[in-house]
Every structure is written in structure tokens, then in C-alpha cells.
Amino acid sequence: KWGTKAHQAILGQLKDSSGAPFYGGSIHGNDDAPTKAAIEAYQKSAKLKADGIVGPQTKKSLYAAYMDQLCEVKLKPDDFVGDPSDKLVQWACSGCSEFNPVVVFSKSDADAFKSSGNKAERDAKNAPNRRASLFLFPATAKGPGKVTFPCPAWSEGTAGCKKQLFPDADKRRNPTDAERTWEAAKDTFACQFYTVIAKNEMASNSAESSTRNIIESWFEDDKGNRLSQVLAGAKLFLVINSLGLVGESISIDLSDVNAVFLRGDAECKDGIVSDIDIGSDLIKVELTVKQKR
């Protein structure tokens, strides 16, 4: 569920009429004055009631604007395979991952995760199962009777899904002695229909690759305001928002920024800020702009 952190991130990406982001602060999740001001500014631009609250109407507008920025493609129910109007939203919106995991834990891992109070490792290993899959069909498949879709509408619950399952569905999607993946074992999907349309699905290479990355980085001043440009002589912070990297040491390439940076008294050679110790998912690295290029 998206909350204040997500709203701050979105407002930091969306631009106002001058080309500046609506929100320039850090992503901290607090509903502070700069966040409310950014919400109000967006609401005014969208001709909504400017109350600084992300209510139903603002959510609908804000999320749509963000998705429009991320992707220029817009699909209508008529664009999906099956009944031309897809009235039950069967093709456009199906939640199949519950019955069709691409990764099934080993019994030993499942028992260890169940007894552990720290769910981070379990969530990381399970990340490939929390996926959104897109299936593309040829244009000739569109139209009534071209493709039989046996699944219920997303709003009808899972009873209809269970009618499509293999007789050994529970065995397929529950832990066994060894960890199994769909691409290697071809026995983790419980739904017979999903097995046909998703036969080449993979676990995004691995849980590690899909859950260990740098989500975003940006520059801030000492007051927590995001910077759209850096000035010679300025002291600033490089903020790094990461996932699954706590305890590691990383490097960040700033060579695309037209500036020479100092970290302490040492110059960052070739724009590389190295030996950054990740102590939490959100960290700040103090830098000085030695000169602009």
C-alpha cells in the first residue's frame, strides 16, 4: 500500500509548470510542511481541492500522472485477448502467483524462516514470487472464441481457480527436501492453464538479483532539500536509497555529473565515490564540489 514515502517519491518525479519537481525534500515518510506544500502545489496544478491531503481524488490523479510519466502506453479493456470488452476483467487483471510460484523453498529453509523473527531474508528469497507477468498474444488470438479463458474474474475469489489445478497441486507448490524453481523443475505451478501460457516464465534470474539494488540516489543540501544542480565550492550530501545491501561496501559513479567531487580531502577519481559502507537502506555521503567541469 502506497503511503507518504511513495507520495514524496512520486512528487519528486512529477514536474510543475516551471519544470521543477513538486517535492524536493528527502524520502522520509513524515507528513511534514514541505510534503504538504508539495501536495497542495500538485493539487492546484491538477485543479483539485488544495488541502494538502492525499485523499481519493488526489490519489487517483497523482497515481495516474505518475504512471503516465513512467509509460506512454495506455491499454483499454478492448485491447486484451478474449471477449472484446473483457467485461469481467479476466485478462486485464488476474492474480495467479498464489497458486503458481516460480520458487518453492526447501523444507529446511521454510522451517528456518518460520521460526525466525527476522522476515527480511525470507521476503528477499520469496521476492520472485511477488511478480507481475505480462503475456503477449498475436493479433489473430483476439476475439470471441479465439482463446478460451477458464479463469474467474478477479473479484470472484479463488474457488474457480481451484477447478483448474493439477491433482497434485498442493505437492507442487509446497516445500520439499530441495528448493525448486519453475524453469529448472517445471513442477511448481499448480494451475494447468497457467502452465500452458507461462511455460517459459523465469524467477528473474534469482531472488538475490531482484532484491539487491540501488533504488535511487540524489543530492541534498544540509537542510534536506533536493538539489537539481551542483555549484562549485558547495558542500552537499549524496543520498543513496538501496535495498538488500546493508553491510556491504559499494561504489557510485558520478562521472555523468559535470563536477569534480571531494570526499573529505580526497578527490573522487574519475567521478567514482568508492568504499561507501551501507549501514541502512537510506544513507548520506558528505561531499564537496571541488570545481565544475
Content-based structural category: alpha+beta
Task: State Rg.
Answer: 24 Å
Strand order, biggest sheet? 3-4-9-6-7
Strand content: 15-25%
**Continuous helix count:** 10
| Secondary structure: number of strands | 9
Q: Low-confidence spans: pLDDT under 50, at least 5 residues?
A: 205-211
What percent of residues adopt helix (DSSP H or I)? 25-40%
What is the string of helix and strand elements?
HHHEHHHHEHHHEEEEEEE
Structure notes:
The chain has 293 residues and is of the alpha+beta class. It has 10 helices and 9 strands. It has helices at 4-13, 33-45, 56-70, 107-115, 120-126, 159-162, 169-173, 182-185, 192-197, 207-211; strands at residues 103-104, 180-181, 213-220, 235-243, 249-253, 259-263, 266-267, 272-277, 282-292. The strands form 3 sheets. Strands 3-4-9-6-7 form a 5-stranded antiparallel sheet. It is globular. The two termini are 43 Å apart. The model is unreliable at 205-211 (pLDDT under 50).
